[in-house]
Batch of 4 targets.
Target 1
Amino acid sequence: MSATVEPTVTPTTATSSLRRRALGVAAAVLACLAIWGIGEVAGVDYTIESPGQPAVVVGPGEIIGITLGAALLGWAALALLERFVPRVARLVWISLAVLVTVLSFGPLFGIEATAGARVALGAMHVAVAVALIALLPTRRR
């Protein structure tokens, strides 16, 4: 008869993980706002035109909403992986995060935008990935 030993999660560990992940989401949002702000000061025109759609000016509200949504979806995906495949959750989630980041560059090629806007938006995609990959998964022990 073999007994499975479940890892214990103390309230301190859970609170620490929650804080770390919330910090990751906040860092992603703040990094994107900083990149947007630097571009704004440098005179980047953030007007984006998608085929068949009216032009949109990407501002702080859009940055916060999109980044927050993506970061929270990433957190939810990680939580699901940790629940259902805990042994490989970290590896699978990081692999998915990198894949999603690479795929997120696709729409940048299908829009009409200035070079400065494309560079700034691409930098935001990378900043989100870096913040989330660094802070969402639990550290290996």
Target 2
Amino acid sequence: MMYAIRIDGHFNYVRARSVPKMMNFMPLAEIAKLQTVFEFRDVEGTIVGFYTPNFLAGVHLPGLHLHFITKDRTRGGHLLAAAPSSASVKLQHAPSVELGLPMTLDFLTMERVRDIEADLNKVER
């Protein structure tokens, strides 16, 4: 099943990545080339995200997909690693998923024959 996850706490170490804001659709493998990796030490913040089962792989990245944001909400990114020293964890089952698709020319005319699994393997694994 799908779950929403929230972890609030103090972290000895957090490693996260982010990419610049994109105005038009770009394949994930190309966006990843533009990413910046950040490291935070001795920081308070929140990790949020989802656990998605494999059968929803065409809709969302399967497994855990987590993001970190500092307590002051000024820094963060896609979570790569974390070492909490104290934390509270909240988990919520998501029994349904609503999917909204953009109605833009870029989305409606984008190439749909890409090997998304190959892109994910380059970026996530």
Target 3
Amino acid sequence: MEFSLNLKMDVSQEVERLYGHEVRTRVCGICFSADKLLLVKHLGLTSVGFLWTPPGGGVQYGTSLESNLIREFKEETGLSVNVARFLFVYEYVGAPLQTIELFFEVQPTGGVLCKGVDPEMSDSQQIIDEVRFVSLKELNDFAPESLHHMLKGVHNKEDLLRKTGFFKFEKN
């Protein structure tokens, strides 16, 4: 148990070192297969020690949003995707992290689903713990604090695919 706690603390500190104390722009993809949503379980985040989120990651200078999202899906999930359309913007403000996330609908076009890696993290501190398609019933059984804020209260595909505009969560 002590090893798990230390790993969680080390990962949280590494996340803060890499991504903290600056505004980070991210691209994220909403990807359904039938009625199941593709999610990535990240360790070392939230009070429960992990967070389920749609695949995505940081925007690299000099490359398009679409190219960044395609790269992130390949790195995190092993899947190739087609970026279909822009959906919404989400801002998270909760020291030490602040992100602006641009969400897109994506469709898988190939590849083999697998647990990928975060290339910014060392091998011993990888935060990707699991990658899988989750039914919306199962999603609603997850602890709310283990879900990305945009996934809370989602009961059908349209709850996500019809979202437009700007959403914000500010942690006090």
Target 4
Amino acid sequence: MEEARMARLPTTTGRVTDASSDAANRRIEADIAQSVAFHADHPELIDRRLVELDREWDTERVLEANAATLALGGTVLGILEDRRFLALPILVTGFLLQHALQGWCPPLPVLRRIGVRTAREIERERTALKALRGDFAAVPAAQSRNGKARADAALRAAS
């Protein structure tokens, strides 16, 4: 019974893209491909782009910041001005729970339309750029018998 209920919830890594429109997902994927293609021709700009990616807010962070702002504002207004403002934090936290469980909430289509990406999408571009830069060349081939050396090299390349 528990297993059947859990099967209805989307995966953590795929829930936002699953809940997003195909058009938004295609545009974001095209933007990633365009960035990687551009940086393949301009490898001297890869480091700068990696710094930009480190600073980029993903959908979770944007939703959390907006929800916290609205919930706090509604609570303060509910305490200081009118109790009816307390409906705002109730509504916002309900949407946040819906997002946590299903990957969708009312602001998500707007965020995706303006190009806010998931952490997984940001990491996909980062990994492709690191591969272009040659970061993974130091990882020995799978045929190497020294598993610890391979693992250490892989971890260094991934950081």
